[in-house]
Amino acid sequence: MTVERTLAAIKPDALEKGIIGELCKRIEDANLKIVAMRMQHLDRARAEGFYAVHKGKAFFDSLVKFMTSGPCVVMVLEGENAIAKWRETMGSTNPEEAAEGTIRCDFGTNIERNAVHGSDAPDTAKFEIAYFFEPNEIVKYEWV
Ligand code: IDP
Ligand code: MG
């Protein structure tokens, strides 16, 4: 087991639903520690840069529009196998295919408005964390 960090985001659809607290609770219940957190309303350039890997795909323009439609909560999560664990806690991209009890199953509206984001691999986690946070914005504390 290795301690990892991953970038998580609560997307604008989840803020509209008033479930920030519920989602933070699920994060901590999954033994993932929130070590950085900020509310941020992405502008177009910021959202396009974040999702650059999807540029050219049919859903890209709509995704950018959605992600800039309201604020997000961006976070760094830390824990053992944090990247895979957060992906499991979120569930599949399409809420209709997401396993029962996952966030996207419980709160996703459709394949685009799916409540949360999570990095998918160590290299993307590194890029995405640095995209939103300076090293000195990531804090250290122990659970006792
Ligand atoms: P992920 O968020 O589960 O990693 P990705 O394939 O990386 O899924 O897609 C990024 C985001 O783009 C998704 O979370 C979702 O909001 C949106 N998205 C992905 N596929 C589609 C699609 O087929 N139609 C509309 N939106 C999509
Ligand atoms: Mg992805």
Question: Can you put this structure into words, describing what you see?
Answer:
The chain is of the alpha+beta class. It has a single domain (about 5-40, about 70-135), classed as Alpha-Beta Plaits. About 40% of the residues lie in helices and about 20% in strands. It has 7 helices and 4 strands, in the order E-H-H-E-H-H-E-H-H-E-H. The protein has a 4-stranded antiparallel β-sheet. The longest helix has 11 residues, at about 120-130. The chain is globular, with a radius of gyration of 14 Å. The chain starts with a strand and ends in a 12-residue tail after the last helix. The structure holds inosine-5'-diphosphate (IDP) and magnesium ion.
Q: What would you call the structural class? A: alpha+beta
CATH topology: Alpha-Beta Plaits
- Arrangement of strands in the largest sheet: 2-3-1-4
How many E strands? 4
**Approximately how much helix is present in the residues?**
25-40%
Q: Profile the largest sheet.
A: 4 strands, antiparallel
Low-confidence stretches: none
- Cα shape: globular
> Ligands bound here?
inosine-5'-diphosphate, magnesium ion
CATH class: Alpha Beta
Rg is 14 Å
CATH H-tier superfamily? Nucleoside diphosphate kinase-like domain
CATH architecture: 2-Layer Sandwich
N/C terminus separation: 20 Å
Task: Give a topology summary.
Layout: E1 3-10, H1 12-16, H2 20-29, E2 33-40, H3 44-50, H4 60-67, E3 72-80, H5 82-90, H6 103-107, E4 116-118, H7 122-132
Bound molecules: inosine-5'-diphosphate and magnesium ion.
List keywords for this structure.
alpha+beta, binds inosine-5'-diphosphate, Alpha-Beta Plaits, 7 helices, 19% strand, 144 residues, binds magnesium ion
